[in-house]
Automatic annotation (TrEMBL):
SUPFAM superfamilies: SMAD/FHA domain
Native source organism of the sequence: Pseudazoarcus pumilus
Name of the protein: FHA domain-containing protein
InterPro entries: Cell_Proc_Reg/RNA_Proc, FHA_dom, SMAD_FHA_dom_sf
Residue span(s) of domain FHA: 34-83
Chain segments carrying region Disordered: 116-137
Amino acid sequence: MSSVVPPPRTAHPRLILSMDGLVLREILLDREHLTIGRKAHNDVRIEDFSISGEHARITTILGDAFLEDLDSTNGTSVNGRPVTRRVLADGDIVELGKYRLRFVAPADAPSALELGRRRAPEAPARGVSEPDTPPSVSARVRVLDGPHAGRELALLKARTTLGSPGGEVAAILRRRDGYVILPIDGARPRVDGVVVDGDARAPGERAVIELAGVRMEFQQRA
């Protein structure tokens, strides 16, 4: 009996581009930003009129890949559902016009959305979770209102997901030069009153983050 052998995992996530079941190429997500579209300046060029000139962008941070539709004419879907922004999970099928991109996660790397479904034992606030990475700077989030007002969460790891699946979700990502906040699945968090709608935004040493009607104070020390 024959069996289908899954593709080997690598240190970086990747995409398998296909059309009508025929694999065309493999794309390694080894850079932070990758654009897909019909125009020549895109990182991945697909010369087909079902694809917009600048169709979609994938931002890869710490092994997680965040897909964003760039107001394309025919739209972008994941697993048959139209999306504007989404964190990709292993095995997701991204549909761009007549083309398919299968997302393959790196070995032993859970997605930010999966992390959002977990509950860290030490997390005091509902819907907050973290992966395992040692800290390089000291930072924390303190809840300012709601039933958990006054509670604090130390940002000790590389990714902390705020919110819960089905609601607004955002990720706080730790980089060497500090922290950034990134909206997930169409969330529109505010940082000091300004909507974060697109690329990751650095909150600075102190900022107020608003997500799903809850205000949280972010504090960072070098």
